[in-house]
Structures are given as C-alpha cells and as structure tokens.
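User: Modeling request: complex.
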Amino acid sequence: MTALLEIKGLKTEVVTSDGRVTLIDDVNLTLAAGEVMGLVGESGSGKSVTGLSIMGLVDNPAQVTGGQILFKGQDLRKLSERKIRSIRGNRVAMIFQDPMSTLNPVLRIDTQMMEAVHAHEAVSKQAARERARDALGMVGIPSPDERLSAYPHQFSGGMRQRVAIAIALLMSPDLIIADEPTTALDVTIQAQILSIVQKLAREKGTTLIWITHDLSVVAGLAEKLSVMYGGRIVEQGLTADLLRHPMHPYTNGLIASLPAHNKRGSRLKQINGTTPSVASMPSGCAFHPRCSSATQLCLSRPPLEPIDGRLLRCFHPVTAGAPL
Amino acid sequence: MTNRLEIRNVSKRFSRKSGVVERGAEYIGLKAKNPVVRALDDVSLSVSQGEVVGIVGESGCGKSTLGRVVAGLLQASEGSVLFRGKRLDEMTDKDAEDARLQVQMIFQDPSSSLNPRQRVREIIGAAPLHHGLTTAWELDGYVSQQMERCGLDPSTSTRFPHQFSGGQRQRIGIARALAVQPDMLICDESVAALDVSIQAQILNLFLDLREHLDLTYMFISHDLSVVEHISDRVVVMYLGRVVEEAPVGELFSHPNHPYTRALLQGRPSLDPVQRLFSAIEGEIPSPLSPPTGCHFHPRCPFAMERCRTERPELRSVGAHHTSACHLND
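Assistant: Request completed. Predicted assembly structure:
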C-alpha cells in the first residue's frame, strides 16, 4: 500500500540576515490512508511548525529549507503556489486551536462556508449551501439550516470549533491536520468533539494528524504516535507500544510525570529543568541536559533508528520493565 | 475545633450599574433592567486546617469567583466568609488585616500576574516589607530565602519576569504569595498554563510546601487528574452551585451526581486500548439565564419533571459525601 503522506527529512528554519535558527529538523512521517497519528510535544517542540510546514503555511522569515513532503506521491514543495492552493483546503485541511482564527467575525457562517466550496468547485449557490448545511449537521450542530445564517460570535466556543471542523470537512479532504483543537475547550465539550472526530475519521476514512501537548487526548484516538522534542521526532511508533513501553527517556518521563501514574498525594516523578528555547537549543541530543542517563556520547546527535518495531532517537533507550 | 475557613450561603451577583438616564428609563419601563449574572448561588463550604480542597468545574461554574471571594478580592453579595470562626467585620482592623494576609492567591497566568517592570526582588519583597515582616536591611536575605524555598536561584533576584521561563515565573508567583507567611493558599488554575513536564515540578513544589509549612490549600482547576492527585476532598461545581462534595477517593470511585459521572467519563485517559469517546449532550448554559430547577437538567440523561421546577438540595449520600440530585430521594 502506498502512503498517503510521506515526509522525509523536513527542515524549517527562520532565516534572517543575522543567521539561521532551526525550528524543526529531520522530521520523518509516513501515514497510510485512514490512519490517525498523534503528534505530541511541549511548547517549542516544533509540533505546530510541522503542521504548518506540511500545509505550506509557514510565513516569512520562517521557511521550509529542506526535505520532501510527498502527498499521494507528489512533492508539495515543488508545486506552484496555484497548485498548492487547489490542494490546500480541498484535499488537505487544517483545524486550529482558536476557531476565531479560522472564522471571519464579520461574515455569516453560510457566506464563509459557501466561499470555501466555491474556491474549489464550480457548483450552484444552492448546492454549496446544502453542502455547508450537511457539514454542520455532521459535526452535531442542532438545526443547521437556521444556524447557517448566524455570525461566529453567536456561537459558543465549542460550537465555533465545530463550525471550524465543518469547514475543514466541506471538501471531504483526504488529510486533516488538527492543531490542538480541543485545548481551549471544557472537559465535556472536548469529549464531544473527540467523539465526533473519531466517528468521522472511522466512517469516512479520513487520515488525521492530531497535534497536542496532552498524551491522554491522543491515547484513545490515534493508532500511531510521534513524540517531538526540540524540533525533532524522538520516538515514533504504535500508540499502544509507546504508552506501554516508552523507550525514549523523554517519553518515559512524560508518561511517568502524569498524576494518573502516581499514587494519589505522593510526589510526582518529574523531569527536571526547563524546555529549551529554539534560540539556544542544546547541541547533540536536545534532551541531554534534562536526561538522567545522559553520557558524553549524547553531545553528538543520535540518529532516528528503527528498534523494536518503532523509530527511536536515543543512545540510551529505556529498557523494558524499567520503572516508569 | 473551628474550621480554618468556612463559607456560609455565599452568593455573588454581577451586573452593570445603570446611569441616571438609564435608571429613569428603567423606572418608566422604557428599558429592561441590566441582566444579572449569578456567579455564585448559595454556596457553603468548609475547609479545615492543613486540608487540600479541590474545586472542579467547567468554565462559568463560579470556581474562580469563589476563590476570589475567599481571598478578599471580591465582596460577596450575600452570605459570609469566616476565618477561624470569625467574620472579617467582627474583627478589629488589625486582626482583619492579619486574617487577610494569611490567605494568599496564586493565579493561572504567571506572566500577567507579575509586574513586567519590576525586578524579582521587588515583586517578592514589597509586601513583606510593607507588612513589617522584614526590614530594609534584611530584605535581600529574606528574598533569597523565599526564592530558594521555591526552587529559584537567588542570584537571579535582580532580573525581570520576562527573563524567566513559564515554570520559573510560576515559582516567582508562589514565592511572592509565600513571602507574607500565609497559612492558606488559593491556587486558581495554577498549573493549567504550564507544559506537562513543568506541571509535575510545580505540583511537587505544592506538595513539598504543604509538608514543610503546614499549608491549607484551595485548589481550583478544571483538570480532574490534577485535582485527584493533590486534594483530600473535592467539591464539584456547576453554574454557580455546589453539586457534589466528597473525600477524593470516594468521589472518584463512587461519583453520585450525573454531572460528576459525566465529567469522569469524558476525561481522556492514558489507557492505550482504542476506545470510543462517549460524551454528554449539550452546552454549558449561560449563567445569565441558568435553567430553572436543577441547573444540569437540560443535559442530564435522567432528568425528570421535578428537576425542571425544584432546586435539589445538597444531601448526605454517604460518609462525608453530599450530592444535590433528586435521584437520591
């Protein structure tokens, strides 16, 4: 089976006259049609930049400076802006954390949704409106016909995020990149959105990249998991494998520090130190200043290598059965 | 023994004050009265010395307002807040000031709660100096001690907040609160804005401080797993009312109120087994026009006729376990 999306050695940098700052480097991802992947990392790990790079949405002074983004075998980086535009929003769609950055506050929902349809397909107004209504219905917005003529501010936060998801679904894309879409929402609303997305991904076979900082959100949603740290993927594999036996000390520390893994009221196992900023990334393995098993070897950069059914970027993997 | 803190039937209403012309218009019926938000509706709660009480709920449930009323940042519209059995207005001015100083607050966003133009030394040192807990001579040593206790390097005391990372800024906020030697902390979403790996560090700091300083906490959060970990007792709020209250183990193993059960079900877990997310229907209603009767009835799968009209009272459903639901009758 050919992959729907294959990313090889993706590199995005901020290029200024003062020099270059690397945001992400050597990012490799492969997704088959219908797969759901969780992309997990803390702030500054490069998870959002990866999503934006795939969409061709990184802005000056940042730019994609290396690697390939093969979508259905076609390198998106080599396409003209015109070609890209016919794919973006059509075959590949993105959902952002804040729905108000997707929605125009002064236009009605139907205007915005019909515009999105007309951008990619010459259909009648009537047909576009019907498609917009169906999309709203799919994401569970009650009485979609009336809600179509509402403005974004007339929706609650959770409803707005549903509208943003509906817009992403309009053209039945092959790939959806969701960047922390439930982070700003309440627990019960987050559960609603997750259940809708899970249902849609299964029914329509949409491939999904779910970007989040919260491991527990993707644990039940994604089959595959990529963990990012300091702009690189440090561990990648099946969700069940990674959660049961994390091999990278960072993944291991992240899971061990969750309150659910610790006895109530006891001290949590913590990762010491702070997340590095892109401007002062440690050399070699970016995690080595915070890692308890770091050695002299870690000052050189470890490669991303296959081990035990997954990809791992570490010289000192955590052995199976070691305490979390 | 008197409780460290007791909240009795506290309500807090917010509304915009009308101007003279508006009041006239309201009087002759040309304009509707300004809407009133009932942020807290008859909330009672007690906290004993050394206890950690977790307050959970979604946005708009009044958990932050409750924290602010206790910290004295807001005045309750009705009801009273008792510190060690006494109301502030029953005390002498000096005692009232001391009582308020004993309760300090830690906010969610460390960057907006620290003055960007002050150095860390001033941020932490200003309040204890004003209250005479230290002298100008001893201030540097005092501040260093506060910083060390919160895991900050005292040599950075002349820096500005922006020179610190998010986790360190939260530590500054904690050091500032502890500098006036309180015995109770109100943490309003204090770890929500932090990265996962930093969250564990700050939670550990709270646990350590509790042990060393015998602190009492009111820990406000929307994150159930954080509240479960740190609290002795948990209070669940919905639209300005307490719907359930129980010791932490009891609440998480035997949730009684349908809302609590929905919250626990909707919580994502690390269980790697692919599961279907189930969710309760509906939105959180606006506190401007809360539903009648039980606030939760429009979303409740078990709602009956009675729930639409009659407000359920908090009733005992087990040892130290109360819940406000008609199903328990």
